[in-house]
Structures are given as structure tokens and as C-alpha cells.
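User: quick one, fold this
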Amino acid sequence: MTTRSVSPGAALLRASRMFSMPAPIPAPPGDFSSATKHSSPTATIPFPTHLSVTTPSSSRITGDWGFKRPLPLKTTTNTTIPLVRVRQVDSIEHVTDFQSASDHTITLEKFQELHLPLTVPAAHTRDLQDATDKPKSVFEEDRDVTAIPEGKEEELENKRWRFKGPWLAGMTDGAFGKYLEKEVRGRRTEFRAFLKERLAAEMTKDQASEAIEKVVDAPEPVTAADVTEKQLVEYMKRLRSEKIELYRLVSRFLDLAPLAQPFNPRDAAPNKLYELNRPNVYSESGPPITHPSAGLSYLRTRRFQENHPLYGPQFDHPPAEARVVMPRHTPTGNYNPILGVGGFIADIGQDTSFNTSRGRKHQDLMAFDLETRGGAKKYADIKVANVDSRGKVIMQVDEASSEPELVQKEMMGRYPLYEEHFSSKRKPTVPYYSRRNEFRGPGTQRYGNLQSYGLGRGDFGRNL
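Assistant:
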């Protein structure tokens, strides 16, 4: 059976990148700690791996999605939002393998409605509060380092997020062994040449310092060719005893992702402050597998004011409704409830009304609400959001203030705030004087005094 030939134009379009779908990105790494826990094969993965495709309503009725064959109407017309992800355009069974892509696409729309920028994690423990109150966007010039100039790798090693080598702390024993066999063992000659250059630079620096002390001219710089084999062997023996310096050189040679600073018991002496410093913001949990923004938001700051049509500029941003995914259950060790905001599981702070100490005010956080459609919801104020090393979005939320919550309920038609508090039927608290009394005789009425101008004793504490 011969295959059907196509025209040269059709063959050109098939081979063109303009009309081809991008290859799917690798799936997120699995969580080995949850191997014994229940996991659903239909659960939404942390980030999308395939392109989302949509089509207009006129083409959707006929099943035309722009592929080789039309998609079945029974499946594609029963969904509210026409979004599909194609796993294989032409399978061995001569069918198009696809599924709905509304989960990630709608989640993206929800996140963009929050007007929330992606931030970087705190570099020091003392900056944890500043990372929430004064967040730094991942698009700042000192953080969004992607194009590294030649020779600036060491200078920018603590500011970049992309590395050629892996993050060793997140590798298994098998993956680490394969990495050694495939990438490391065959580069011994290159590493010796790298050490010669380092030793030559160190010898040049020592000779220059010695010349300054003796007040003589500095000698010629030492090159890698001037380093003898004996000097290199002595240098390697010295590095074996200095493990921190050896790892620093190896990580720069292999371009490894930075690791967290190891704990030294001598630094935790009594009456001595121990401060944990991170050379890189991603050294604790590893660098992200994608850009730190993950394509969710391209905003650099959230410092703008929302303008209400009646009340004017607002001090706080509108709070978001958080769904109570799992209430608090002390017998099982779940002391804090699990909330979902915009399709993401949020991180609850320890000093909020959602925790155990103040949770008695919210009965919806203590048990499942089976009467409310969709479950119980609470208004939450979103502080910051960032992407971890596995591509998951981590959001920190706090309880919403009462005033923004009432304003948001009024915008959604759930609370008559204006009619109840600002209606024209309500009498004003400030007394109103008619202009007819303007020409009364002296001593009959006073139109101004110290108290009316804010100069009374109760305002400033002294009689002006």
C-alpha cells in the first residue's frame, strides 16, 4: 500500500516551524517523600508541559482546530471553554491524542487577575520579614541575570538562577553516579589546566604583595605555563585539606548550582549570635527549573492604588476569596487549615487568624462546610508569591482587613455597604447651618472657634 503524496506547498507547511507545535517540556520531578501517600493520576501537575490550543466558535462547531483531522464534537462541544492540549497529532492508531487544557489556562487567568508580581526568596534570615513587606521582583536588574558577559561568571554567581551543572543536594545517588561517569571523569585534564591558571593567579598575587612590602618593582605575572608539575601537586595536596576552597573551585569549573552554608558547631557557642547567610537565594532549595517568573506575571511591583468608583483610591488591594480545601484537624496533626487561592495552595503565616491560636473565631476552619456550594470560603490578603525549585507556586496569605472585605463584597453584590452606611437618608454628623443665618446680629451665633479649626485643647493638648 503506497502512501498518499502531498504537494510541495503542503510538505513545506508541514516542515515549517511556523505551523508546527513546540515540543513539550520535561515533566516536573516526582516527590520521593510522597511515594507511600495517595496520589491521583488525574491531578493537576504543578506546571503545564504542552501548548494550549483554542479555536473560535464557528470552527469549533465543525470540529476544525487546525490539525490534520477534526476533533470529535461530542468531546469538544461539551466544555464551556474551548481549550485542548495535544499530546500527539498523529498517533499509530491514526487519531489525535488530546485532552482538556482548561486547568492550567484558567489558573493563569486567575493569577493574572490578582496583579501579583513574582518575587525572589530571602537571602538571609534577617530578611524574611523584608521579603514579605518589601518584596523584590524577579525582573529587577540585580536578579534577572540571564546574559552573562565573558569573564563575569564568578562575579555574578550569586545573582543568577541558571547554571550548567546540577544542584547536587537535590540529586539521588544513582543520578549523581551517572553524572560523575558521563560529565566529570572525562574532564580531568581540563581540571588540571584550570587549577594551573588558579595557582598562577595566586602566585602572581603573592609576589605582588611581597614586592609592595619590600618596596620593589613587581615581577612579571606568572602564567599557567610557568607552573611546574611539582608546584601543581603541592597545590592539589593543600586543596584536599581545605574542602571549602576545593568545592568552590570544583563548582566554578563545573558551573554547579550553589549549596547552603554547612552548619559549624563552633559558630553556635554560648552567648554568641549565629547568623545563617545564604550566598545565593536559591542555595537552600535549589534553583528553579524555569525562569523565576514561570511566565505567570511580568509585573515588577504591586505598589499601585486601586481606584473605587465611589470611595476613591483604596489603601489596600482587593482581597481574594480563599477556598478551605482542608480544615484544621488537631488529632491528625493538621494544626493549620489548607487554603486554596486562584488554583494554588497558599502558605499560611503563623501570626494570622487562620492558625490555631486565633482560629476559634472562624468555625469554617474547624470543620467541613457541607451546606455551602463549593465549600467554605474566606477572604485573604495575598502578600507575596514565588516559584520554588520544582516549579510550584508558593503564595503567602494573611487575613484580610474588615474594610477591604466589605468593599469587595459590595463589588460582588453580596453586601449593601453604600446603602447601609453612606446612604443619603442618613443624617450627617457635622451640623449644617443655613446661609440665611449669615447676617444675624453679633453675639447670636459663632461660626468659628478654636475647636472648629482644630486648635482646641483636645487636639493639641494645650490651649492656643
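User: anything notable?
Assistant: Confidence is low (pLDDT under 50) at residues 437-447, 453-464.
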